[in-house]
Specification:
Layout: E1 4-17, H1 21-30, E2 33-47, E3 52-56, H2 63-70, E4 78-83, H3 93-96, E5 99-103, H4 115-126, H5 130-144, H6 159-171, E6 177-181, H7 189-205, E7 209-213, H8 217-223, E8 226-231, E9 234-240, H9 265-272
Parallel strand pairs: 3-7, 3-8, 5-6, 6-7
Antiparallel strand pairs: 1-2, 1-4, 8-9
Helix pairs in contact: 5-6
Length: 304
């Protein structure tokens, strides 16, 4: 049974279209026009236990919306999803104890408290044993090299230190599924490398199923066995990650017939041009001659 199963998951937002000016606002009192936008449109994929999958796409493609539906923060318009056998939209406590969501542009730590006190609050919320939670904190702070920053106010931490503390808070209850939404955004090169090394080693050792979104291709190439590319709310590629040379985490999950990601420049152009139709000009007949054109330098005198 896959850890994550998504079948035709759809989320449609309905927004009010207000006309400009006072009269537009006045008419809106009696009659309103709405526009429907599909942030996710029949998204389908599966993720096996322990797999680390890159979830890619341009801004507004539907990545964060999909992660929020899998975490139970948003109710889908249609379709179905299961995470560890649970329906996320039901928000059962048993389910909440088994996953974690890290949003690179959102904070779960209390801004005016030391990181240690925010972690203690999370421990109480999850009902963790104090000794067990302390062992986890000691292990994670050692791996991320932030032990001496536990008593520092969160607002006084650097961006990289704050993200490391966010990861510790997310992993404190030892989740089986981890959703990461741009965890390295805004970090310097050294901090990015440290976070990547930590995620690769920790998730592999603990067999944590991970769905990662990022705009940094180095994150994807170094961490992911597989990528899913989404644009305009629809999945259009699901296969092996480019530049991935490490052996598969679970040999029994490897499918030799699975599509492989396009390599090099082709992969980057797919991400930039996702969902856009490319128009080719009609091919010219090679037998046609252009009288006004100078002869090509590589043409031999006897050629026509």
């Amino acid at each position: 049974m896959p850890a994550i199963h998504v079948n035709k998951l759809t989320k449609v937002y309905r927004t009010y279209q207000k006309e400009a000016g006072f009269w537009g606002a006045f008419k809106g009192l009696a009659h309103r026009t709405y526009k429907e936008t599909a942030a996710a449109k029949e998204v389908s994929f599966t993720v096996q236990e322990g797999e680390l999958v890159g979830f890619l796409g341009p801004n507004g493609a539907g990545k964060t919306t999909t992660l929020k539906m899998l975490a139970g923060l948003l109710q889908p318009t249609s379709g179905e999803a299961t995470v560890l056998g649970f329906n996320p939209s039901r928000r059962q406590n048993e389910f909440k104890r088994q996953f974690a969501l890290v949003l690179g542009q959102k904070n779960q730590l209390w801004w005016d408290l030391p990181a240690a006190e925010s972690l203690e609050l999370n421990r109480v919320i999850y009902g963790l044993d104090p000794a067990s939670a302390q062992r986890t904190i000691d292990e994670l702070t050692e791996l991320l090299d932030v032990r001496e920053k536990l008593d520092v106010m969160v607002r006084e931490l650097s961006l990289g230190e704050r993200m490391k503390m966010e990861l510790i808070a997310a992993l404190l209850h030892r989740p089986k599924v981890l959703f990461l939404d741009e965890p390295t955004i805004g970090l310097d090169v050294v901090s990015q490398k440290k976070v990547r090394e930590f995620l690769r080693d920790y998730t592999t050792r603990n067999r944590i199923t991970t769905l990662l979104t990022s705009h940094y291709m180095q994150d994807i190439e170094e961490l992911c066995d597989r990528v899913i590319i989404i644009d305009h709310g629809q999945v259009f590629f699901d296969g092996g990650a480019p530049g991935h040379h490490r052996p598969a985490r679970h040999a029994q999950d490897h499918d030799p017939l699975a599509p492989q990601a396009p390599s090099g420049d082709r992969f980057y152009s797919l991400r930039r041009g996702a969902g856009k139709k490319r128009h080719r000009s009609p091919a010219k007949d090679s037998t046609q001659t252009n009288r006004g054109r100078k002869s090509r330098p590589d043409r031999r005198p006897g050629d026509r």
